[in-house]
Amino acid sequence: MKEKLIDLVGITKSYGDNIVLDDLNLYIRENEFLTLLGPSGCGKTTTLRIIGGFETPDKGAVLSNGRDITKLPPNKRQLNTVFQKYALFPHMNIAENIAFGLKIKNKSKSYINDKIKYALKLVNLDGFEKRMPDSLSGGQQQRIAIARAIVNEPKVLLLDEPLGALDLKLRQDMQYELIRLKNELGITFIYVTHDQEEALTMSDTIVVMNQGYIQQIGSPESIYNEPENAFVADFIGDSNIIPSTMIRDELVNILGVQFACVDKGFGTNKPVDVVIRPEDVELVAPENGTLEGTVTHLIFKGVHYEMEVSAGGFEWLVHSTLMHPVGEKVGIRVDPFNIQIMNKPASEDEEAIGIDEQ
């Protein structure tokens, strides 16, 4: 197990009457790619800014290798931040932009030149030293911003929605670049995004946030396949979330029909929420299904067909490589291992709070 590099302990932050973070606890390990994921206003950027020293929490502490750095200014912390707006100096060429932080540290000219060449090679922009920022594409400017951060040899690189301004193809290219850089440099990445695909593609660990609380922490696979509440299930990918009744261990009543499942410990005849991913809904002949329904919508998505099936008074979302035309009668079948059971929150507050421990 890698050691904790940064530890956030009991972090609370308010702006006026608006509580943005409420007793947040989170640690980041050395050489981890950790993503803070959630909708606008969930507290992810505030968390990043507190780690970076751009904001001070009202309560709680930020520890780095066990040392309290809560009140330490950003320039005294061993980290660098890359923002969505690249913040390159327009009057400086690329070499001067990259060298800016090193000159402030009074590094030698030969050291700076070596570092510029090294950083440009890392971001695949060899020979761009004399170019001006306005002559570069958005993706190239973002790479320069990353190169400028890398040359300072931070232990932690903070990235605040750095790919948000790029088009889809560039964004996908840069995702792979960031994974490569993280592996080559061996530094810790803390990444903020509201884009679930980015989080699933790049992260070792995803922290799903909502309303200032951590909802779930885990690997991309566990977050996607085993969401701990309806918010996470709905936010990460498409889901069928259906109010149901747990009859007993390994048996659940969904829309009036009994489905076998693998979950235990939810009690007898207890209200639960069931999550079934669209790709896990199998469409079969009506007589072979657990539920019978009718295809109501059909869209071709390239890799698969997206269909809606009206069955049991619920509109099921289905992803399949097999096309079923609108109006066709179908049966719905779900493998017991693909039925995820979740406790119903007792209140809206409980739904927002989720969990706050890693």
Give the structure's gist in a few sentences:
This protein is an alpha+beta fold.
Give the SSE layout.
Elements: E1 4-15, E2 18-29, E3 33-37, H1 44-52, E4 59-64, E5 67-68, E6 79-82, H2 94-104, H3 109-122, H4 138-150, E7 156-160, H5 168-185, E8 188-193, H6 196-202, E9 205-210, E10 213-218, H7 220-225, H8 230-235, E11 240-248, E12 251-254, E13 257-260, E14 270-276, E15 282-284, E16 291-300, E17 305-311, E18 314-320, E19 329-333, E20 340-343, H9 348-353
Parallel strand pairs: 3-8, 3-9, 6-7, 7-8
Antiparallel strand pairs: 1-2, 1-4, 4-5, 9-10, 11-12, 11-14, 12-13, 14-20, 15-19, 16-17, 16-19, 17-18
Largest sheet: 6 strands, mixed
- DSSP helix fraction: 25-40%
CATH class of the largest domain: Alpha Beta
Global mean pLDDT: 89
Low-confidence stretches: none
Order of helices and strands: EEEHEEEHHHEHEHEEHHEEEEEEEEEEH
Query: What is the second-level CATH architecture of the largest domain?
Result: 3-Layer(aba) Sandwich
Question: What is the overall shape?
Answer: elongated
CATH superfamily of the largest domain: P-loop containing nucleotide triphosphate hydrolases
Main structural class:
alpha+beta
User: What's the total helix number?
Assistant: 9
Do you know the CATH topology of the largest domain? Rossmann fold
Count of DSSP E strands?
20
Determine the N-to-C terminus distance.
14 Å
Strand content: 25-35%
Instruction: Compute the CA-based radius of gyration.
Output: 24 Å
| Order of adjacent strands in the largest pleated sheet | 6-7-8-3-9-10
Counted up, domains total 2
